[in-house]
Please model this.
Amino acid sequence: MLHRLKQWLSPDLAIDLGTSNTLIAIQGEGVVLDEPSVVALQRGTQQILGKGTAVGKLARQMLGRTPESITAVKPIQGGAITDFKLCESMLRYFIQKAARTTPGFRPTVVIAVSSGISNVEKRAVFNSAERAGAGRVYLVSESKAASIGAGMPIAEPLASLICDIGGGTTEIAVFSLAQVVSGKSLRVAGSAFDQAIIEYLKRHYSLRIGEQTSEQLKIRYGSAYPLDEEKTGEVRGLDAVSGIPRRAIITSEELREAVQGPLQSILNGIKSVIEQCDPELVADLSNTGMVLSGGGSLLPGLDHFFREQLGIPVRVASDPQRAVVRGTAICVEHLAQWKESLETSDGTI
Model:
């Protein structure tokens, strides 16, 4: 009864603190917030615009479109907090927006983070969450949260391979008996695809485009594997030579060529993780295969590309962009079951 009252007054939260987006889920309600991890500031200050409300979707709309007096900042880069104060302000805004808060009550919070962050960076996450209004704070690796959210049998004595391609990091891990047997965190992910497209257009067309334009090109025309019907689209940007606006026609084949660098880096990371496993676990993977999650896994043909390169079954998780927050929410709901694999500010339990 007391637990129900506390949940009503200050519900426990599951947070996927991502480079591109922050998602928050509440037990019994599912995902209640999905916002870009962006903050808009008065240039030269730490003052958030709009009385502290220029955060998330509103701030993201300003990326690449702000006057000199305003700057849009991402306080998380490559899965790690790069600006502690801004991350704290952003988290506080998101927590207050996502859930009711009652004075004197602080929610238990489980946060999914990259497995590659240092102890100093973990401490920054704990501090930011606590100052933003959280009570007891736990951390779970994004790879574990994604595998739980994707419904993988990671607690069984066989190999389960997850590849979570987020905005700033790619988390690769093989699980057996709920433990990481082999894993790697790469700072090559969805944003690297976008940057590769920007560089390709600059190199081959002398055309300069922004991050949002690049992302839209990737979504509309990008692919990792030949399409049944290749696409052609128009891109608008700034001519790097003349300095005036210009249009160009680009094909899905060209965009596929553009993202080959990041794709190969992720492929090499997966191979490295598999090579570190015992032969028995590698044999398991020929049957269990690999599950893809994260926004980057939505690149068309990515499962076909990895299936051909690795020779194992590959599938994309259901609603892959929310696999991490779904798994984190399960950890919150069944905290007693997952406690031993989570981390607190005073060390692993």
Notes: The mean pLDDT is 89. The domain at 145-188+260-320 is CATH 3.30.420.40 (Nucleotidyltransferase; domain 5).
